[in-house]
Amino acid sequence: MYVTEDELARLFPFYFCLAPQGHIVSTGPSLNRYLGESNGEESLFHHFDFDTPEVSNIEQMHDHLEEVFILRPKNHPKLILRGQFIQLKEEGILFFAGCPWVSDFKTLEETGLTMEDYALYEPITYFLLLMEAQQNSLEQSESSTEELTKLNVLLEKRVERRTERLTEINQELILSRQKLQEEMQQREAVEKELRFAQKMEALGQISAGIAHEINTPIQFVGDSIFFLKESIYDLQRGLSEYESLIDKTNPENQRRIEEINQILDLDYLNERVPESLERASQGIQRVSDIIKAMKSFSRQENKQKTLASINEAIDNTLLVASSEYKYNAQVDKDLGDIRKIYCHISDINQVLLNMIVNSAHAIEERFGDKPAKIMGKIAITTRDIDDYIVITIWDNGAGIPREIIERVFDPFFTTKPVGKGTGQGLSLCHRIIHEGHNGSIKVSSAPNEGTQFEIFIPVVETLEAAEKGNEST
Fold first, then answer.
1. What pLDDT does residue 75 have?
2. What's the confidence (pLDDT) of residue 452?
3. Cα(19)–Cα(171) distance, rounded to whole angstroms?
4. Partner of 311 for a Cys bridge, out of 35, 209, 335, 355, CB 3.0 to 4.6 A?
5. Is 344 domain-assigned?
6. CA dihedral 205, 211, 212, 213 (to 10 degrees)
7. 366-380: burial string, b at 16+ Cβ within 10 Å, e else
8. Is 0.85 surpassed by the pTM of this model?
């Protein structure tokens, strides 16, 4: 041969040589990848199928050496080789000069062909073919990618809209749940306030009944004590007259009088019995005042306001609530000359009671229950200022922390220990004054210094104005 095998490999990477009997004696490096190394002494027809021309033996091949051959490796039928057989007479062999033949990029990928697998004499032609096939594939890929991109954008928009809608629905559900919780809390609060009002109403009815039942025997006792006081006075006066009529010059009479005085201790009785009756009379009078206060405090009212005295309401409330403060606080009253007003006096009594009891509890919290020396002070004043009755209730109790003072009128909010308070007292006071009387309540406090409540109630001196006020609320 006039060229080396390396040169042949560079010229025709898929070359192969046939011996006269049709056996493959040598192959190019690219063909070796598809045929394998064990090809010696094997017939050409053992490895290849011929598409054109149709030949089945070596003798038929010699009749078509002028034609272009298209053949396929049997173990790689997708690989198509196109070329011519050249007869080297001196060596007595046939030389196949050809290269792969493909029409699309997909076949290139499936067969694993590269540029190095093509013959040098036609690299441009097949390289352009390769590039064209690759370009067609890329265009198809880009077209597919563009369609996928459009579909992806459309899907993302749908997902985005669906997500927005789901977010809106979720937000609506959250708001609905919050609204439902608020309504349930409000309903629970109303139910608790209703139960509390019913309890207070029942308690008022019981108190009124008890006061009525006690009032009659107390009147009997009071009348009897008054009779005894008058009778004792008459007896003392009679005894004095009798004593003046006795002949004191008679030693026997004088001795007997002294003996009777010593046995009966008449001087002591004469001094102590009137004092005891006076104390009993004062006690009965206090009990009577308390009963009257309880009857006034628990009096059932209709929806119509009545003309009442705020000062009398304060006195009655202090009597009813005396057990709450008398052991730890001194009450100072400064009740001004104020006008009577149309109001729901039983509701005003409830406000005053809650305020006084809260003051007593605050003082107890600061100074303790039943201290050795009374340190607590409660000051109550009333004034008639600019068409308002102003009630001021001050105490030197524990005070209210600054961070919670704005919440003291919230329903069920309390700073008292469990079992000590319900958190409804000040809320009820605020509602009675604000909603029931078009008034207002101001509060100021400092820890360990005290608390002051100022209650402003509009002066309403006629029933017509009171009824208009009820309609406006």
1. 86
2. 93
3. 86
4. 335
5. yes
6. 110
7. bbeeeeeeeebbbbb
8. no
Given a contact cutoff of 8 angstroms between Cβ atoms, the answer to whether 345 and 372 are in contact is no
**Containing structural domain, residue 317:** 303-473
Q: What is the mean pLDDT of residues 20-48?
A: 79
Q: What is the pairing mode between strands 376-385 and 329-335?
A: parallel
Express each pLDDT in 142-155 by its tens digit.
666 777 777 778 87
Q: Which of 121, 137, 167 is the last residue before a domain boundary?
A: 121
Distances (CA, A) of 449 to 402, 421, 423, 426: 12, 21, 22, 20
Q: Please give the backbone phi and psi of residue 13, each rounded to the nearest 5 degrees, phi first.
A: -60, -20
Which residues does 223 contact at the CB level (< 8 Å), separation at least 6?
Answer: none
Give residue 34's identity as a one-letter amino acid code: Y
| Burial (0-12, 13-18, 19+ Cβ within 10 Å), 99 | buried
Which of 79, 101, 121 is at the close of a domain? 121
* Tokens describing residue 169: 């629905």
Classify residue 469: in a domain, yes or no.
yes
The CATH number assigned to the domain holding 452 equals 3.30.565.10
Count of Cβ atoms closer than 10 Å to residue 392 Cβ? 15
In a domain, 85, yes or no: yes
Phi-psi region at 212: left, alpha or beta (left = phi > 0; alpha = psi -120 to 50): alpha
CATH number of the domain at 24, please. 3.30.450.260
208 found inside a domain: no
Distance CA 353, CA 73 (A): 113
Number of domains in the chain: 2
